[in-house]
Structure formats: structure tokens, C-alpha cells
Amino acid sequence: MTGTLRLLRLVLRRDRFVLPFWVLGLGLLPYVYASGFDTLFATAQERVEYARISAANAGFVALYGPLHGDSIGELVVWRGGFVPVMVGLAALLTVIRHTRADEEAGRTELIRATVVGRFAPMAAALLATVAAGLVMGVIVTVTLIGHGMPTGGSVALGVVFAVSAWVFAGVGAVAAQLSGTARGARAIGVLILGATWVLRLAGDMSATGDGSLAWLSWLSPIGWVHRVFPFGADDWWPVVLTFVATLVTVVLSAYLLTRRDLGGGLLAGRPGPAGAAPSLRSPVALAWRLHRGLLFGWVAGFAALGLIFGAVASSVVALAEDSAGVGEMFARIGGSDGVLDGYFGTVAPICGVLSACYAVQAALRIRDEEQAGHAEAILSTDVSRIAWAAGHLLFVLAGPAAALLAEGLMTGLVHGDVVLMVEVALVQLPAVWVLAGLAMLLIGVVPRAAAGAWAGIAVVLLLMLAGPLLGFDQWVLDLSPFTHVPQLPGAGFTAVPLMNLTLIAAALGGAGLLALRRRDVPG
Amino acid sequence: MADAIDAGGLIKRFGAVTALDGLDLRVRTGEVHGFLGPNGAGKTTTIRVLLGLMRLDGGSARLLGGDPWADATALHRRLAYVPGDVTFWPNLTGGEVIDLLGRLRGGLDRKRRDDLIERFELDPRKKGRAYSKGNRQKVALVAALASDVELLILDEPTSGLDPLMEEVFREVILQEKRRGDRTVLLSSHILSEVEALCDRLTIIRAGRSVESGTLADLRHLTRTTIRAELAGPVNGLAGLAGVHDLTTEDGRVTFDVDADALDPALKSLVAAGVRSLVSQPPSLEELFLRHYTRDADSRESERAR
Predict the structure, then answer these.
(1) B-chain residues within 8 Å CB-CB of A271?
(2) Please, how many CA atoms are within 13 Å of residue A415, restricted to the half-sphere of its CB?
(3) Are A129 and A95 spatial neighbours (Cβ–Cβ below 8 Å)?
(4) Do A519 and B55 touch (CB under 8 A)?
(5) Closest-CA residue in chain A for B107?
(6) Each residue of A70-101: pLDDT tens digit?
(7) pTM to 2 decimals?
(8) In chain A, which stretches have pLDDT less than 50?
(9) Residue B46: C-alpha distances to residues B20, B43, B266 (Å)
(10) Which residues of A touch B125 (CB under 8 A)?
């Protein structure tokens, strides 16, 4: 552990912009939500009604988790139910960035040759992330108390935020040991995070129905932090579970670290073919080799999502038909058709944004290739820049389509109405392409800031999750391409906005390609 | 025959930094041309300009008779490039990379590929990240050398290779040279390599060419070291313009002499009666160091000011 504090300072120095960005951005969200809810309801009666309807909306429960009360505090916690997932994502990416990514780049080798202990780089990354989680929790607590919320609940929600970061910092540390590459480690980490979210979702959905699978939520750290119920029950003991999980993952990662060589993963590489298959002869063929793993992963993940969403849709209908009391309430929001419309209207755009994450990830591969020096090797051959980029763009555009298609198909196969379900899923595609076009534009025009494409995703997500609640003007909401997507199946299908979105995407991407042709590589 | 590379007054700026400051480079068709300069002198930037990867801020460059920026892909069919800092895709084997790059370039000679893999003792079945720096370098070299192209652009191709493999590299390049129709631009730090392989060379410093010509031309510009044992005392040598650092001891003289003062200096030695004579032409190291230290001196004097 020698040198941990020095390395900690290095981590904080390198992350002096990124770390405050997510700590502040996510830490202030509960306060923003609280302000939004303050002005949303004219009377307490309205608020109670809103809470009752929301608690029974399967789409909402799927997204945000269960809602057990109707106070403003409980509504804030519930509505921010997806935030722990984002906190977890930020935490695990931070840890991997300062462990496996450094190791892969050879920086750790240099560091470890100095007077620095074996565990110091990981300890520094974990300490930085744990501290960031703590600061974020304090921000949550202080801003909410300052807003006049009850102290107990404010502290509890702060703790929820902090431990969400801690648990997934541990997950990130384990993932960093398992894979030999940062890319692989991120994939493992995100997969685990996604699995915990899906477990939580499946358990909570089951709890709104017959409850036979409600125990699944207890397998998920995301489920645990939801069960603290700040401002309501203020249960502290699920927090203990997160402490245990953090401790176990950190100890496990330290153990795995001692079991492997510097630079190595736990899975040894095998020799491959001595020559290339005859088909490996074009930029597209190379792009297929580079993208296929990611493509399979996303398509499989989306198929699983479709499976769950389909099952939930069926249980929603059953619930509406079985329960008289709830049925009456459902009738007011449009009966079982209305419930389903609301459900798909909530879930489908989320699938859209998730697939846009894939599109951005695939597009930024172009920039990765450039930075790694691979582009130089390709572009010094008889391959034009457009042809090189187009090989990747094929996957940027068609990859999300395949993922959404898989999700729609699975939803349809489980719930019925395959054609409609595929339509509901695929109608998001033009909006996804706009975000992909933005990524391409940044890659072409400001390559050093290409990762800013993720900010586009963050803005869209914020507008989608919090926009209506915060009472933004319509023109602000209109900034998100997903605002313009027809809300199938409730609203009718209209082609014009989809064509406009596609044209915008083409214009952004085309401008990016033109700029790419004119600039230095690497730029 | 036209020059393979004809670049004049190249200017390339990165923000406030001027990487190329009026650099000239001419490479004749069929020659092996050495491209020398200290780290950061602009060698890689020049090569990237010649490959059409970077756009010039000034000057003109012709490569194989075409414009490296506008005709990039057409020209790339006729050349092969070995980058200085090679990394490849972690999930592709060396053999796959060689085949892919060859095919993207328009085809490679299968027999020559296998022959080169054997000579460089490369294991083509390993994946990208399992290769050491030297082995990655071999992958890039085999991919370039197995292509049937007119021009090879090699950016420090032997960095990371062990001495045995350096020797193999020299043999291969000398074979290429004997064929006579391939042009090679060889950026290098290894002076013995440049001395052994290159017909002509260009030395650059701080984005500018400071010397260009055959090794003999460049030697001509510098001093020869003479050591002689004489029968009698020598007259007039000390007063001769172009003779430097003269020391006389027990009838032995040692001095450096400029090329144009060589004849009168030798005449005065002969007049004294020569018992033995050693004449040492300047090595490339000395040529190189002269430019490097001059660079350091001028920086020193600037700081002093």
C-alpha cells in the first residue's frame, strides 16, 4: 500500500474535471427533483392522487422502483430511483479508468517500478471513488435539509447515494482484475450493473403482481438501496448489506490481484490463426471483427430486456382486469389499453436512449482507432477516410436497429402482437441516429472532445426523466430527439417527424464525415 | 526519372508550435534515403504529411508524382508504411494483420510473406497484445515488405528489434536495393544502419533540413583527423587556414583539417618526411553530433542572453 496517498493525489489531479462533474451533477438531482415536486401540485390531494396512480403504473415501477408513500420526500426518492444506477456506472468506470486502463496502457508498470506497493494503484482508485461517493452523499443531504426536508430522510438518501457508489466501485475493482483490457473490464462491470438493475426490476414487477419472484430484488444492490425508503420507513439495515458487498468485492479484487501478473487478466489468451480468412479484406470486414462482440452483447441484452418488458406488460393487463379497486383507477387513465399505452410510452424511449448509448459507444470506436494508432496503419493503405469511417458507421447505424429489433421481437413473443411491438421499438431509431450523428460530428470537427457525445446522452436522459417534472418549456424538451418520436402505440404513427429526424441525423453525420476528410489524422 | 519524393518548404503548425519550419526533402527514385534528426525534429510529422494524413500549412510536396493529400488513396496503392510506434488490434493475430494490411494495399506476395515471417522468426498466431514491441515491429515490417510497392516509408523500423533481427532487416533492405526499382525512405537513429544502407541522407533539426546529400558529400563538409609520424620538424602547418587542434609531440603530429585545406596540409607533411600516416574520415556520429551540439549551443547562448 506504500505510495497510496501520492497516487490518490494523481487520481484526483487527472480527474479534476470528470469527478466534480458527476459528483455535482448526480448529487444535485434530488434537490432538483424536490424543487420540481414543490411546484407541481397545487394541493396535497393532487399529490396523493399522483402517488396512487404512479405506484400502480407498471412502467414507472419498472423504471424507478416501488413507491410506498405520498410525501414529497418519498416521491423525490422514488422518482430518482434510476439515479443509483447512474451513480454505480460512474463509480465503476472511475475505478476501471484508474486501474485496468492504466495497466493496459503501460502506465501502471512505470508506477509500480517506483516505491509503490502492489495494492496502491487500486487502493488509490477505490479511495478516490469512495470519497467522491461520500461527498456526493453530503451534497444530497445538505441540499435537501437546506430545502426544508426532514433531516432523517435527507441523511438516509445521502447514504443511499454514497453506498451506491461504494458497492459499484467494488464491482469495478473486481471487473478490472478479470479482464486483460479496459474495454473488457468495462463490459463486465456494465453487465453486472445491468444484471442488478434487471433483477431489481423483475422482483419489483413481480411484487406488483402475484409476488412469486419478489425475492429477486433482494439479490440486487440496486434493490437494497431502494429498500431503505428514505422519508418513509428509513430502514437502515439494507445499508448493512451494501457495506458487506463493498467489503467482499474489494477483498476479492485484492485477492485476484495477487493471483495474476501485471498486465495479465485471469483468462489467458490462446493462439489464433496464422493467416487471415479470405473474407478479411475490406474496412467493413475489419469493422465486423472489431464490433461483433459489442453487437452480440447488446443484442443479447436487449433481447433479455424485451423478455422482461413483455412479461411485465402481460402482468399489467392481468392486474388491471383482476383488481376492482385498481381497475377503477385504471379506467380513469384509459382502462387496460390506457395502462399499456402509458407503460410502453415510458419504456420504449428508455430502450431508445439505451440503444443510443450503444450507437455512441460504437461511433467513438472511430476515435479510439485513431488514438491507438490503428487508423494510421489503415489509412496508409488504399483505403479512403470515408471508407474507413463508413465501415464503423455501418455498425453505429445498424447495431442499435438490431438491438431494438431483438427487444421488440421478444416483447411481442411474450406479450403478443409482434408486429406492433417491433414497430414500437423501431420507431425510436431515427432519434437514436441523431445522437449517433452528433457523435460523428464531434469526431470530425472537434476530435479531442469527441467523448462529449456522452453529454448528449446525459442531456436527453435528463430531459426524458426529469423534464416534464421540472416544468421545462416545450422548446427545451424539443431539444431531445426523443420528444419528436410518435408515442406508439397510444398516439398514431406519423412519418414526418421521423423523416425530419433522419435528415438531421444525416446532416450531422455527413458534416462530421466531411470534416474528418479535411483534418489531420491523428487530430 | 522523376524524384520519388520532392518536398520543399514544408510548414506544419500545431497551434502555437511549429513542427515543420520550411523543411526540404528530396528522395530520388530507386535510392535508399536516410532521414535523420533528433527526437521531436519533425520526422514523423513529415512522414504523416507525405502520407496525406496531415495537411500542410505551407510549402509543397510531391510523392510518386502525385499530391499526397489529394491523391492519397491512389498513391497508397504504390507504397507501404511502417509506423514508428506500432500497435495493432488486440483481437487480431499478427498473421491476420499482415494479410489484412496487404490486401487493403492491393495484394501481397504470399511466398514472400511466408519467407519474411520465417526470416524474422515471427509467430503469426499470437494476438495483438501478446506481442512485445519488437514483435509488433516485425509484424508491420513483414506487412510492408511483402507488398509489391514502389516506395517503402519506414519510420524508425528497427526500434525494438534485437541485433540479430536488425541484421535480417539490413539484408532484406540491401536485397530491395539490388532490385533497383524500389525507393526507401528510412527514418532512423541508428547511424551504423544508415551508413550501411543509405545512398543519400537528409539531416533535419527543429523542423528544418540542415544537411542533405551522399554520405561522401556530407563528410566533405567536415574535418578529417590526421595523425602522422614525421622524419623532421614540420613547417607552416600551424599557420595554415583550415588546420585545427594541432598538437606536436616527439615528431608525431595530430590535427583536424577542413576538406579544402587537406592538400596544402599534406604537402607540408610530405616536405617534412612522412614515416606513417593515419587519416580518419569523420564518422556519421560526428556529423550528427556536430548538428546536435550546435543546436544545444545555440539554445545555451539564447538562454545566456
Answers:
(1) 93, 123, 125-127
(2) 29
(3) yes
(4) yes
(5) A281
(6) 899 999 999 889 899 999 999 999 999 999 98
(7) 0.82
(8) 324
(9) 7, 5, 43
(10) 271-274
